[in-house]
Amino acid sequence: MVTVGVLGLQGAVREHIRSIEASGARAVVVKKVAQLDDIDGLILPGGESTTMRRLIDQYGFLEPLRQFGQSKKPIFGTCAGLILLAKEITNQSTVHLGLMDMTVTRNAFGRQKDSFEATLAIDGVADDYNAVFIRAPYIERVGEHVKVLATYDEAIVAAEEGPFLCTAFHPELTEDHRLAHYFVEKVKESKKLLQESQ
Amino acid sequence: MVNVGTDRVKRGMAEMQKGGVIMDVVNAEQAKIAEEAGAVAVMALERVPSDIRKAGGVARMADPTIVEEVMNAVSIPVMAKARIGHIVEARVLESMGVDYIDESEVLTPADEVFHLNKKDYTVPFVCGCRNLGEAARRIGEGASMLRTKGEPGTGNIVEAVRHMRQVNAEVRQLVNMSVDEVMTYAKDLGAPYEVLLQIREEGRLPVVNFAAGGVATPADAALMMQLGADGVFVGSGIFKSDNPEKFAKAIVEATTHFEDYELIAKVSKGLGEAMKGIEISTIQPHERMQDRGW
Predict the structure, then answer these.
(1) Residue B283 in 3-state DSSP?
(2) Helix/strand/coil for B65
(3) Residue A51: which CATH number?
(4) How many domains does chain A have?
(5) Where do the structural domains in chain B lie, given as residue ranges?
(6) CB B35 within 8 A of CB B148
(7) What Rg, from alpha-carbon coordinates, does chain B have?
(8) Concatenated DSSP letters for A47-71?
(9) pLDDT tens for residues A170-187?
(10) Exposure of A195 by Cβ count < 10 A (0-12 exposed, 13-18 middle, 19+ buried)?
(11) Which PANTHER family has this protein been placed in (chain B) (predicted)?
(12) What's the complex ipTM?
């Protein structure tokens, strides 16, 4: 069985743990850097990206998280997690992990009163996925190696680049675990490849 | 199909705040300090609760200029307070685009019988509670987030502790009941039956529950997390302390790592004077904010 960690500094951690367990993997809350050695894949949950970045800096998580990604272990970022993964952020000079070749815009759909649910088609996952957008970002630009998985109103809201997966919406807030399952399968594959190469 | 203002979207917003600290601020400068320190949201108001207490008179919704100034200053969510039952204050805040409204007992109630029907609004609401009855009634009215009341503006944690323990004890009691006992429990608590059934089924409240009212030190914040709070509101505690920047950061750290005592010791060192506290028994009954709400 593979082990998936959920970065537990702040945000919707419990919900991700539940959907990982429902998808047949072991789930752990990651609060300390050393725990990264014990997991096969990592979820960066939804929350406040500004707050998460402060906490990532305070606990020296930034470099270890980048290295985790560079070692080709899968990372799945949802909402704030997507912002953490991006190489560029509109109107902002600081970027976070910079692992995915894309430009993202924060709070791109407006404030909380504009938050919404919509049905999406997600390439390779589902064609009737109920996606929950909360003060959500979207992806403005993707690099040539980034695969677009879903769009809403012409804005890119889900993408994949090698071991990295991201959504602007919150799959953890519904009972539909198909995206979590998709990620767990990615983690399984990557673990197999890493074991073979050793 | 696109839906705005659904329960999932409104409650989900509060889920994203979990494990975080929401700070009271009265201007853009304080809002920036709060954001910099790692607050997950700020509450924009005209006076912090301890100053409301001192000023006396009627406390109302903040001047929209203050709320607007704070909204323009930070990218984290901005909350604002409306008086209990004040439909128009709530609608005004909603029209301004605040991210969350606190129907708050810290302000002087506008209605001494009814709370807002919060299901009517697109913007989500947070409400105070001292026990499961209040919690369930507020959920029944459409609150998307709760906070235990404590006694605001006192810097005294005792009431916050009492309310968090009370709510959680009653949830545990409910979860262990057989279904045929729930209706009478609903009658005793004055709580909506369907909401209690749902809580019993899920084993917990269906919305996030933060602690509020009296948090004055990093250790206070960590204590509330240990008692089962999903996060912490800090009102007067931060900007009434000697060194707000340092204090705000320390509270955030203690909330994240509420079981790491060495870290809490470290962040608590040399913080300077915390806000001056008030012993609850010296507060006249009519000045107790926690008794507001029905």
Answers:
(1) coil
(2) helix
(3) 3.40.50.880
(4) 1
(5) 7-255
(6) no
(7) 18
(8) S-HHHHHHHHHHTT-HHHHHHHHHT
(9) 999 999 999 999 999 999
(10) exposed
(11) PYRIDOXAL 5'-PHOSPHATE SYNTHASE SUBUNIT SNZ1-RELATED
(12) 0.92
A198 has pLDDT over 80? no
Structure-block tokens of residue B145: 């987030």
Model confidence at B35: pLDDT above 80:
yes
**B184 CA to centre of own chain:** 29
Which A residues in the span 106-125 are in contact with B, Cβ-Cβ below 8 Å? 106-107, 110-119
What is the C-alpha to C-alpha distance for residues A14 and B69, in angstroms, rounded to an integer? 34
- Smallest Cβ–Cβ distance between B18 and the set A11, A111, A132 belongs to A11
Tokens of A53: 């970045």
Q: Is B276 a catalytic residue?
A: no
- B202 has a chain A CB within 8 A of its CB: no
Q: Which residues of A59-68 are buried (b: 16+ CB within 10 A; e: fewer)?
A: bebeebbeeb
User: pLDDT digit string (tens) for B108-156?
Assistant: 999 999 999 999 999 999 999 999 999 999 999 999 999 999 999 999 9
**What are the pLDDT digits (tens) for A8-62?**
999 999 999 999 999 999 999 999 999 999 999 999 999 998 889 988 998 899 9
Chain B partners within 8 Å of A154 (Cβ): none
CATH superfamily membership of B7-255: Aldolase class I (3.20.20.70)
Extract the tokens encoding B211: 């602690």
DSSP label of A92: B
Closest CA to A174 of B200, B5, B17, B8: B8
- Residues B221, B21: contact at Cβ < 8 Å? yes
B104: tokens are 């708050």
The whole-angstrom separation of Cα B208 and Cα A25 is 26
For residue A115, list chain B residues with Cβ-Cβ distance below 8 A.
4-5, 9-10, 12-13
Interchain proximity A31–B124, CB inside 8 Å: no
Residue A50, pLDDT score: 86
A184/A137 Cα distance (integer angstroms): 24
Quote the tokens at residue B278. 């008030």
Task: Out of B1, B15, B38, name the one closest to residue A119 (CB).
Answer: B1
Domain span at residue A31 reads 3-197
